[in-house]
From TrEMBL, chain A:
<protein>
    <recommendedName>
        <fullName>Tryptophan synthase beta chain</fullName>
        <ecNumber>4.2.1.20</ecNumber>
    </recommendedName>
</protein>
<keyword id="KW-0456">Lyase</keyword>
<comment type="function">
    <text>The beta subunit is responsible for the synthesis of L-tryptophan from indole and L-serine.</text>
</comment>
<feature type="domain" description="Tryptophan synthase beta chain-like PALP">
    <location>
        <begin position="52"/>
        <end position="383"/>
    </location>
</feature>
<dbReference type="GO" id="GO:0004834">
    <property type="term" value="F:tryptophan synthase activity"/>
</dbReference>
<dbReference type="InterPro" id="IPR001926">
    <property type="entry name" value="TrpB-like_PALP"/>
</dbReference>
<keyword id="KW-0663">Pyridoxal phosphate</keyword>
<feature type="modified residue" description="N6-(pyridoxal phosphate)lysine">
    <location>
        <position position="86"/>
    </location>
</feature>
<dbReference type="InterPro" id="IPR023026">
    <property type="entry name" value="Trp_synth_beta/beta-like"/>
</dbReference>
TrEMBL record, chain B:
<feature type="active site" description="Proton acceptor">
    <location>
        <position position="50"/>
    </location>
</feature>
<comment type="function">
    <text>The alpha subunit is responsible for the aldol cleavage of indoleglycerol phosphate to indole and glyceraldehyde 3-phosphate.</text>
</comment>
<dbReference type="InterPro" id="IPR018204">
    <property type="entry name" value="Trp_synthase_alpha_AS"/>
</dbReference>
<dbReference type="GO" id="GO:0004834">
    <property type="term" value="F:tryptophan synthase activity"/>
</dbReference>
<comment type="subunit">
    <text>Tetramer of two alpha and two beta chains.</text>
</comment>
<keyword id="KW-0057">Aromatic amino acid biosynthesis</keyword>
<keyword id="KW-0456">Lyase</keyword>
<feature type="active site" description="Proton acceptor">
    <location>
        <position position="61"/>
    </location>
</feature>
<keyword id="KW-0028">Amino-acid biosynthesis</keyword>
Length: 435, 273
């Protein structure tokens, strides 16, 4: 059986009523995902190809490569059906629910990307579907609410708290505690109780597997570093998983080709730095979502992991201009990989992410999701023309893969609004829009 | 015969059979009022009193207790002030704390449950209930509870299978908390059919069983006790009174009386010789 923990992180901290459902899910995961190549996994891959559009390209970004004076490749998950990497997991889990004989799908969503992917997968596989979404997120991600409804899903706004992802997860867990016998909870990231973090990572790991093959074909070798944005961490773990064994230690041990001294692949998880990395203990607010960079150990939503919390243990209200990164927890495996030193946590604030959003749109003709813009913003901080101004040092190397986890159409309203408030160098003149 | 003989909670349930276990959220709307409410429940005949220590993400609670937890957090309730309140209470009913695992882990450094348990024992608490801590993850907390003489009460759910049932009943101390229905906490208009099934399969275990989730009236208490329960647990119905009644102290005391009388009505008449 698969391990329930990653070092000291992970586990199954849930109400007793859900434990049998987790055992059932673990059993199905072992039976179909891990040991049914010819059956379940074959069907999953076929559907991901025909319905989802896999494989997604790995594209050399010519003008970014010029700007940063190194080879930059983009893993284009924005080109997956639905416009984000989320379908990899959603289709996997909805298909698994079908194999398990479940009759109903529920899911939480933050930015709405996981909700839309689940709604699409449920429509595709003919399953009834209900999506819980925080009120704040409903308001700032309206296009995604409409898309979910178009696909036949019921969208239930969650009014509690600040109305973002963590409240949506609470509400979905409560639904599941009531309906567990016939309902599968399609959790949207590598978070939650075992086996979710492992299973979601496995469904998402296709990102890194493809990228690893593609970069070897295009550049003739493995990259020096891989950058991915991190909220809950599904895009991060999906991008990194295939590269985790390519550590400096392991590669120098087996690599006698004498290429470059540094042959390990560095992994950078770029979190949302929001407006500041400081927390306001009094107000219970963290104006960021930089859990790996600043969090402490605790239990949230079924797992021991890094959290943004007060010294008493109350979970902080997190913040990011990007709804998809706005979460006070993070996947337990990422917490573990950071603790081990295999993954380097980094963070990029709202302003830098917005700047990177405009820059990629302008330079490469790709409008990225605000989530993905954080990974691109980190590149600018480390290697851009003004890199010296920032206190950020990282040796990204000469060959870099950045995952563009999704496309930015859903963020246009937010971006226009937030850009107007700021002085952003790379931005077009947004006043022409509706003044 | 079993560890229960040392347990103040188990002894209390046996001596006051059938027992009324009352839950309210500490700090709703303030810790000072919680003191009055606890005393009212104690006067009204509650045999054990559970105090909820609020956590910001109460995934096992329905709307009523979620709202109480929000009121308590907005009033600024902290674990430190909670323990101070408990230490100053002089009730006949032993007190338990109900909270989520993260609150227990963060009371000291290094995510270790021991400092919380040590402080709970010092404050005079007799037991702990943790809705998001299944038996599998309970090792460190159980060890600390055993060291400090506190009962760690486990929940049995309608979905708990026979294999898990054994391991839960082996670990639970004080009593077994029998969850009457799937879902979250909250007052309901009737007693779930699952209650009778749950109690029937627990019959062979010697530890007392108390039924909660949805119990709100004296008649429910009577039905649950007649089905074989040693106690009834009432929470949301009391929290509703705190939120809505003009005189919560009087209302809580009389509700406790109604529930305790109901529970006593449920005891089967001894057969005439």
């Amino acid at each position: 059986m698969s391990e329930a923990t990653f070092g000291e992180y992970g586990g199954q901290y849930v109400p007793e009523a859900l434990m049998p459902a987790l055992a059932e899910l673990e059993d199905a995961y072992e039976r179909y995902v891990r040991n049914n190549e010819e059956g379940f996994m074959h069907e999953f891959r076929e559907r991901m190809a025909d319905f989802g559009g896999r494989p997604t390209p790995l594209q050399r970004a010519d003008r970014l490569s010029e700007r940063y004076d190194r080879e930059i490749y983009l893993k284009r998950e924005d080109l997956l059906h639905g416009g984000a990497h989320k379908l990899n997991n959603a289709l996997g889990q909805v298909l698994l629910a079908k194999y398990m004989g479940k009759e109903r799908i529920i899911a939480e969503t933050g930015a709405g990307q996981h909700g839309t992917a689940t709604a699409m997968a449920a429509a595709h596989l003919d399953m009834p579907c209900e999506i819980y979404m925080g009120r704040t997120d409903v308001n700032r991600q309206r296009p995604n609410v409409y898309r979910m409804r178009m696909n036949g899903a019921e969208v239930t706004p969650v009014e509690a708290g600040r109305g973002t992802l963590k409240e949506a997860i609470n509400a979905t867990m409560r639904d599941w505690a009531t309906t567990v016998e016939n309902t599968h909870y399609v959790i949207g990231s590598v978070v939650g109780p075992h086996p979710f973090p492992t299973m979601v990572r496995d469904f998402q790991s296709v990102i890194g597997r493809e990228a690893r093959d593609q970069i070897r074909e295009k550049a003739g070798r493995l990259p020096d570093s891989v950058l991915a944005c991190a909220g809950g961490g599904s895009n991060t773990m999906g991008s990194f998983h295939a590269f985790v064994p390519d550590s400096v230690e392991q590669r120098s041990a087996k690599d006698s080709s004498g290429q470059r001294p540094r042959d390990g692949v560095s992994l950078y998880a770029v979190e949302a730095g929001g407006s500041s990395l400081e927390i306001d203990e009094e107000e219970g607010l963290a104006p960021n979502s930089a859990t790996l960079s600043t969090g402490t150990d605790g239990v949230l939503h079924g797992a021991m992991t890094k959290l943004l919390q007060s010294t008493d243990g109350q979970i902080m209200e997190s913040h990011s201009v990007s709804a998809g990164l706005d979460y006070a927890g993070v996947g337990p495996e990422l917490s573990h990989l950071v603790a081990e030193g295999r993954v380097t946590p980094a963070s990029v604030g709202d302003d830098a992410a917005l700047e990177a959003f405009h820059r990629l749109s302008r330079l490469e003709g790709i409008i990225p999701a605000l989530e993905s813009a954080h990974a691109l913003g980190y590149l600018e901080r480390v290697a851009g023309p003004d890199a010296g101004e920032y206190d950020v040092e990282a040796d990204l190397g000469d060959l870099v893969v950045v995952t563009v986890s999704g496309r930015g159409d859903k963020d246009l309203e937010t971006v226009l609004e937030e850009t107007e408030k700021r002085d952003i160098e790379a931005a077009p003149d947004v006043e022409v829009f509706g003044q | 015969m079993n560890a229960g003989t040392d347990s103040e909670i188990e002894r209390t349930i046996r001596e006051n059979h059938p027992a009324l276990i009352a839950y309210i959220t500490a700090g709703d709307p303030s810790l000072e009022e919680t003191r009055e409410y606890v005393e009212a429940l104690d006067r009204g005949g509650a045999d054990l009193i559970e105090l909820g220590l609020p956590f910001s993400e109460p995934i096992a609670e329905g709307p009523t207790i979620q709202a109480a937890i929000n009121r308590s957090l907005e009033a600024g309730t902290t674990p430190g002030a909670f323990f101070d309140l408990v230490a100053g209470l002089e009730t006949e009913a032993p007190l338990l704390v109900m909270t989520y695992y993260n609150m227990i882990l963060q009371h000291g450094p290094d995510a270790d449950p021991e400092p919380f348990v040590s402080r709970a024992a010092e404050a005079g608490l007799a037991g702990i209930i943790v809705p998001d801590l299944p038996a599998e993850e309970s090792g460190p907390l159980r060890k600390a509870c055993e060291a400090h003489g506190l009962d760690l009460v486990f929940i049995v759910a309608p979905t708990t299978d026979d294999e898990r049932l054994d391991s839960i009943m082996e670990r639970t101390a004080g009593f077994a908390y029998v969850q009457a229905r799937l879902g979250t906490t909250g007052a309901r208009a009737d007693v779930s059919g699952a209650t009778h099934d749950s109690l029937a399969r627990l019959d062979e275990y010697p530890i007392p069983k108390a039924v909660g989730f949805g119990v709100s009236e004296g008649d429910h208490a009577a039905e649950i006790v007649s089905a074989g329960a040693d106690g009834v647990i009432v929470g949301s119905a009391l929290v509703d009174l705190i939120a809505e009644s003009e005189d919560p102290v009087a209302a809580l005391e009389s509700k406790a009386r109604e529930l305790k009388a109901g529970a006593e009505r449920g005891v089967p008449e001894p057969e005439q010789p």
